[in-house]
Design a protein that fits this description.
The chain is an alpha/beta fold. The protein is built from 13 helices and 21 strands. The strands form 5 sheets. Strands 9, 12, 13, 14, 17, 18, 19, 20 and 21 form a 9-stranded mixed sheet that branches. A 6-stranded parallel sheet has the order 3-2-1-4-5-6, sandwiched between helices.
């Protein structure tokens, strides 16, 4: 992928170096356009060295009067698959939103017909100013994309929202925008459930499980990169991925309510959440002291989210997960049939496998029986393989109206 990186005049400009390293290591071709203000924070030589390409814009070593000159704002704009402005100041945001162009980068932004990504970074008051927010809204209306700033201690010493998002998040956004969609999911609305649920006994103690939610989050990324509009219902503490509408939930009841609210407008669901099967009969509003704690806890069944979605489905497909420790294929096949799923991904969790950051393996199962195993590979790669497998399954077995 060809990435044109615009670097403007903010203290976060130094982070452009880390972003270039990540992009180049991932096999992307990077060129940089540096503004005059940006050159006061990072040098053209640094950007050129890291990218392996000349630095355009504010670079006295690479100016207009060189051999074989080109119309740079057209040539570079046509070259790029993605134009990312990192960091993006209020100045460059305002110029582009209002059609102004007085340097190479601002001219490029008007000439670009590729995807455009903004990663703003500025003082909290500047970011919150109505004019800046209006300009961001205008850019979104142009179908540009934004990696929103984070909250924290800013360079000025103040604390608030305006800090450049993590380089990892910007890198993810660039990769997502450059991904190749699959026709089975392009433009489709996909709901993904992920993470554990927590069923509280009191304000301190809870019933939960060992799931981190990482596999479900990776599935949401894979569906996003396949072209779907993903809605993630997320339990647990892991951060939500870029570009995915996310609803945070805690209990099984909250997850069910969130799912049912979205379900009529969805085209399908990937149910990867590890929903607690029981909840305490009673929630104690105050922390129970050790000497007052009951010796037994009465548990009640939590709602069956997949069953509820299956009963309410009209046209949607359903992809489930089965975490099994024994009788793996038999138990997963029974769940496939009982819940009315189109397919299920079997996850072997015996002996602690499948949790955390380990490589993992999934066995896809349909009504025709189990298929070949996917993995073992890292979960991000496994999710992409699983989505590609399911796309092929839907191609061969299209849903009936």
């Amino acid at each position: 992928m060809k990435v044109l990186l615009g670097v403007t005049g903010g203290i976060a400009a130094y982070k452009a170096g880390d972003l270039i390293r990540m992009l180049v290591r991932a096999g992307h071709h990077v060129r940089c356009c540096l503004t005059d203000a940006g050159s006061r924070f990072i040098t053209p030589l640094t950007l050129a060295t890291l990218s392996g390409e000349p630095c355009f814009g504010a670079n006295p070593e690479y100016h207009e009067w060189r051999p074989n000159p080109r119309v740079e704002h057209v040539d570079l704009a046509r070259w790029a698959d993605i134009l990312a402005v990192v960091p993006a100041t209020a100045d460059i945001i305002g110029k582009t939103a209002n059609g102004l162009a007085d340097d190479l980068l601002s001219t490029l932004l008007l000439a670009a017909e590729c995807k455009v990504l903004w990663a703003p970074a500025m003082n909290r008051a500047m970011w919150g100013h109505p004019a800046v927010q209006k300009n961001i809204a205008v850019l979104l209306g142009y179908e540009h994309h934004v990696v929103y700033p984070a909250s924290g201690v800013l360079a000025c010493g103040e604390e608030g929202t305006g800090k450049l998002a993590s380089v990892e998040e910007v890198f993810e956004a660039i990769g997502a925008l450059g991904s190749a969609p699959l026709k089975q999911f392009t433009g489709k609305r996909v709901m993904v459930t992920a993470g554990p649920t927590h069923e509280d006994l009191d304000p301190v103690r809870t019933l939960t499980n060992r799931s981190t939610g990482r596999m479900g989050i990776e599935m949401s990324r894979a569906f996003r990169d396949a072209g779907a509009a993903v809605h993630l219902i997320l339990g647990g503490e892991l951060p939500a991925p870029w570009g995915i509408d996310t609803i945070r939930v805690r209990s099984a009841e909250e997850m069910l309510n969130a799912c049912l609210a979205l379900w009529p407008d969805m085209d399908g669901v990937c149910a990867a959440a590890a929903v607690a099967d029981q909840r305490p009969e009673r929630f104690e509003p105050q922390k129970v002291k050790k000497q007052d704690a009951p010796e037994t806890v009465v548990l009640l069944r939590t709602p069956d989210i997949l069953a509820a979605l299956s009963n309410a489905r009209t046209h949607q497909w359903m992809l489930g997960f089965a975490a099994e420790s024994e009788n793996l294929v038999q138990n997963a096949t029974e769940k496939l049939s009982k819940k009315g799923l189109n397919a299920i991904l079997l996850n072997d969790i015996s002996q602690g496998k499948g949790f955390g950051d380990h490589d993992n393996c999934l066995i896809p199962i349909t009504r025709n029986g189990p298929g070949g195993a996917l993995g073992p590979v890292p979960k991000n790669q496994l999710a992409r393989e699983a989505v590609a497998w399911f796309a092929n399954h839907l191609e061969i077995n299209p849903l009936k109206d």
